[in-house]
Amino acid sequence: MSRTCQVTGARPGFGHAISHSHRRTKRRFDVNIQRKRYWVPSLGRHVTLTLSAKGIKTIDRCGIDAVVAEMLARGERF
Q1: Which residues contact 45 (CB under 8 A, 6 or more apart)?
Q2: What is the DSSP letter of 44?
Q3: Average pLDDT estimate for 40-51
Q4: Does the structure show a pLDDT above 70 at 78?
Q5: pTM score, two decimals?
Q6: For 61, phi and psi rounded to 5 degrees?
Q7: Cα separation, 21 vs 74, whole angstroms
Q8: Burial of 6 (C-beta count, 10 Å sphere; 0-12/13-18/19+)
Q9: How far apart are CA 77 and CA 50, in angstroms?
Q10: Which helix (DSSP H) or strand (DSSP E) does residue 49 occupy?
Q11: pLDDT band with cut points at 50, 70 and 90 for residue 72
């Protein structure tokens, strides 16, 4: 499963882990990805989405129908 949010498009960030002696090693800042299942009344079926925590809050604020319509407009498949 790719670590990408289907709503916000959030992806992992990359950078350095800096030790006490200030040595740098590469590390990855992962996004808080969850798999959530929603009932979409406009489609008449359940949809399983891969979402970040911010994506879940966006759906809570705007509604699942508005978010799914936006995703369909940009060509996302689910």
Answers
A1: 39
A2: T
A3: 96
A4: yes
A5: 0.85
A6: -80, -50
A7: 47
A8: buried
A9: 12
A10: strand 45-52
A11: very high
- Residue 45 token pair: 């079926």
Torsion of CA 51, 57, 58, 63, to 10 degrees: 100
Residue 77 has pLDDT above 90, yes or no: no
24-38 per-position pLDDT tens digit:
999 999 999 999 999
Nearest Cα neighbor of 10 from 51, 66, 63, 49 is 51
Structure tokens at 64: 């699942």
Residue found by looking up tokens 């891969």 in the block? 50
Average pLDDT taken over every residue of the chain: 95
H or E element in which residue 32 lies:
none
Q: For 44, left (φ over 0), alpha (ψ -120 to 50), or beta? A: left
Q: For the chain, how many residues are written?
A: 78
Tokens 């800042």 correspond to what residue?
Answer: 29
